[in-house]
């Protein structure tokens, strides 16, 4: 059983409104989203496009519901743009999160990414970095981590489908190339599974670098369809590839056990992008909360 004092539970707004596919949940408001997060029993949230940009306004809305911001996605372009462009955007992002009391910044490299392209097959046409790009990514991430450290914050790298850091081999390479004191790992059970990796093996290998966890399950029948029809990442999401923990093909018990045995401290964030018209966000949030309570005691 995990320690409630060390591990907190959050949920991502992507189940209510999808920033990459605005038509999914376009009708759902920010207020509905955070109210239902609280109603389902979560105390943390990541940040979506509908969230107020003013920290004072956002904090007031979240305080009313007993929710805090724990992280927010940051898109880096270290492999394709001058370092300073990413640094300038990162500082703005960092300062907003710091104002919200967050300690974590989840960074995903978007240079050459196909994750937002509707018609590009995700499993066969993912980008592959050159050695020069790997070097730019590794050194750039260390620079961002130093900037985060100035505010007492951490950077964790978010491996993601459709990007240059998708497979376990690529995660291995990035972890080897970066300073473990600076660059941490955001472990995402769903993305490892989708990319054909064993999430348990990946977690066991890198658990000492993991500072943030995304709990995402995968529907096997949809993943099989993605492979058979060579679908894009966005097509996979629309088809229902992802779901909440306990509703798909992933066995989370070994993952929880590894995290417990290694004294994981930080957030578990349920991040399961689905079409809210097909998967009621509150219903699935409650389903996830119940499953996590049963398996972890949290």
TrEMBL record:
NCBIfam families: myo_inos_iolE (TIGR04379). Its cofactor is glutathione; Co(2+); Mn(2+). Keywords: Cobalt, Lyase, Manganese. Coiled coil: none annotated. Its EC number is 4.2.1.44. The keyword Lyase applies. It comes from the Bacteria. It catalyses: scyllo-inosose = 3D-3,5/4-trihydroxycyclohexane-1,2-dione + H2O. GO terms for molecular function: manganese ion binding; myo-inosose-2 dehydratase activity. This is Inosose dehydratase. The keyword Manganese applies. Pathway: Polyol metabolism; myo-inositol degradation into acetyl-CoA; acetyl-CoA from myo-inositol: step 2/7. The lineage of its organism: Bacteria, Bacillati, Bacillota, Clostridia, Peptostreptococcales. Belongs to the IolE/MocC family. Residues 37-291 form the Xylose isomerase-like TIM barrel domain. Transmembrane segments: none annotated.
């Amino acid at each position: 059983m995990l320690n409630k004092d060390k591990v907190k539970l959050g949920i991502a707004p992507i189940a209510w409104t999808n920033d990459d596919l605005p038509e999914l949940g376009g009708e759902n408001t920010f207020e509905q989203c955070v109210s239902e997060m609280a109603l389902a029993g979560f105390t943390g949230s990541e940040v979506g496009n509908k969230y107020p940009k003013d920290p004072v306004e956002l904090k007031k809305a979240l305080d009313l519901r007993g929710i805090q911001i724990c992280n927010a996605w940051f898109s880096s372009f270290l492999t394709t743009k001058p370092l300073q462009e990413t640094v300038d955007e990162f500082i703005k992002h960092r300062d907003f999160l710091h104002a919200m009391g967050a300690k974590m910044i989840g960074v995903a490299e978007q240079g050459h990414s196909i994750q937002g392209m509707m018609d590009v097959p995700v499993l066969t046409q993912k980008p592959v970095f050159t050695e020069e790009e790997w070097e730019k990514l590794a050194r750039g991430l260390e620079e961002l981590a130093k900037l985060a450290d100035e505010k007492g914050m951490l950077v964790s790298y978010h491996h993601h489908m459709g990007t240059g850091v998708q497979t376990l081999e690529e995660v291995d390479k990035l972890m080897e190339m970066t300073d473990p004191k600076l660059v941490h790992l955001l472990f995402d059970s769903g993305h490892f599974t989708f990319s054909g990796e064993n999430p348990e093996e990946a977690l066991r290998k890198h658990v000492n670098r993991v500072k943030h966890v995304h709990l995402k399950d995968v529907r096997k029948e949809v993943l099989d369809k993605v492979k058979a029809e060579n679908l894009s990442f966005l097509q996979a999401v629309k088809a229902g590839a992802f779901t909440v923990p306990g509703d798909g093909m992933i066995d989370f018990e070994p993952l929880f056990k590894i995290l417990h045995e290694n004294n994981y401290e930080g957030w578990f964030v349920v991040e399961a992008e689905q079409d809210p018209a097909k998967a009621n966000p509150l219903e699935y949030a409650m389903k996830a909360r119940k499953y996590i309570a049963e398996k972890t005691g949290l």
